[in-house]
Amino acid sequence: MKRIEVELGERSYSIIIGFGLLDRVGEIVEGLNLGDSVFLVSQRSIFSLYGDRCVESFHRKRFSVRSSLFGEEESDKSWESLQMVLQELVRFDEPGKKRCFVATLGGGVVGDLGGFASAIYKRGIDYIQIPTTLLSNVDAGIGGKCAINFCGIKNLVGSFHQPRLVLSDLSLLSSLPKKEILSAMAEIVKYGVICDEKFFAYIEDNFEKILLLEASSLEYVVSSCYKMKADIVAKDERDTKGIRAKLNFGHTIGHAIENTYKLSHGEAVSVGMVAASSIACHLGMLSKEEKNRLEELLKRIGLCTEIKGSESQKIMEALLHDKKFLGKTRLVLPNRIGEVKVVDGIEESLIQTAIEERMEKGEII
Q1: Tell me, what CATH number does 121's domain have?
Q2: DSSP H stretches of helix in the chain
């Protein structure tokens, strides 16, 4: 069992990483003084796999538990789902008799919605994250950003609300379909590009083991990603200093593609990273060799780097509505593998050209 600290003063918390931890969640949480009642937010398919074990672990330590389950898709991260969860939380909570905290059991959709519910209920109550996907382990499960999709725009309505604990039980990943593991690989590659060339080289040499969820490689990759993100979040918790922004490498274009096409998050980010690297090459920031190295790794892993279609204008419209633009075109671009820079004022025509280059030959997976 490994422990990583996210250093945020009074909002600091631990990330605990290991195998077989779900059956110990009640024991691990017991000493945190979060309350006596657990409001467990999950999705039906995830709860059917792991819900009973999670509830039983809490019951063994005499926590009362109420489960709230919502839909299975990204589109279910909605205002309607949030209302349902909050209504069930109100019915479960008994002022003066219970002290409730939220536990999210699932991937990024569950963590976002459950975290946001805990952020706004009574102006904020405690919550813990129990990620069940590789993507939520390496990225979405920490950092305190939580949100719902609104008016067709991803994560438009949200807040910063740090969890009190992240419990990363890597044995839960064994049930993941290959497509979800592939989606997470884009985020794993992202960390190598933005932070650590040696980590990028490790992925080049070991991506097949990671895809097979080989225990030692999986633990190394997840722990490394958590450490890198924890360090970034500790330096720029609320994304105001331009440090945390580098986590968005590939995401501004990627989210716009994701909103326009039926691609997974990882597939869209993969295309977005290559498009951003092309822009960096055009601006003289990145060598063509480095850009080709990134694109080749993504292809070897099995991620798409191109999409089929002619909807570049729709992608641009979605991109220009991105909440991170703040009235100007802003992208995270690589200087080299292991280092990126936030660049403002990029010409829209250059961004559109880079997107159109990704649309020439590819096919949606």
Answers
A1: 3.40.50.1970
A2: 25-30, 44-60, 79-92, 108-120, 134-135, 178-194, 197-211, 215-235, 251-260, 265-282, 288-301, 312-320, 348-357
Cβ contacts of 121 within 8 Å, gap of 6 or more: 86, 89
Do 247 and 104 belong together in one domain? no
Residues 111 and 198 in one domain: no
151: Cα separation from own chain's centroid: 21
Which of the listed residues 125, 159, 175 is the one where a domain comes to its end? 175
Q: Is residue 33 part of a domain?
A: yes
Tell me which residue range forms the domain holding 91: 2-175
* Residue 243 vs residues 127, 247, 249: alpha-carbon distances, Å: 25, 8, 12
Query: Are 276 and 268 spatial neighbours (Cβ–Cβ below 8 Å)?
Result: no
Q: What is the pLDDT along the chain (365 residues), one digit of tens a residue?
A: 899 999 999 999 999 999 999 999 999 999 999 999 999 999 999 999 999 999 999 999 999 999 999 988 888 999 999 999 999 999 999 887 789 999 999 999 999 999 999 999 999 999 999 999 999 999 877 789 999 999 888 888 999 999 999 999 999 999 999 999 999 999 999 999 999 999 999 999 999 999 999 999 999 999 999 999 999 999 999 888 989 999 999 999 998 998 888 788 899 999 999 999 999 999 999 999 999 999 999 999 999 999 887 788 889 988 887 656 556 788 999 999 999 999 999 999 999 999 999 986 544 43
Domain presence at residue 49: yes
CA–CA distance, 283 with 295 (Å, rounded to integer): 18
Angle of CA points 236, 106, 212, to nearest 5°: 95
203 and 83 fall within a common domain: no
DSSP 137: I
Residues 164 and 195 in one domain: no
**Across the chain, how many H-helices and E-strands are there?**
13, 11
* Tokens 């990126």 belong to residue: 340
* Nearest alpha carbon to residue 85 among 102, 73, 99, 97: 102
318 shares a domain with 256: yes
87 and 222, same domain (yes or no): no
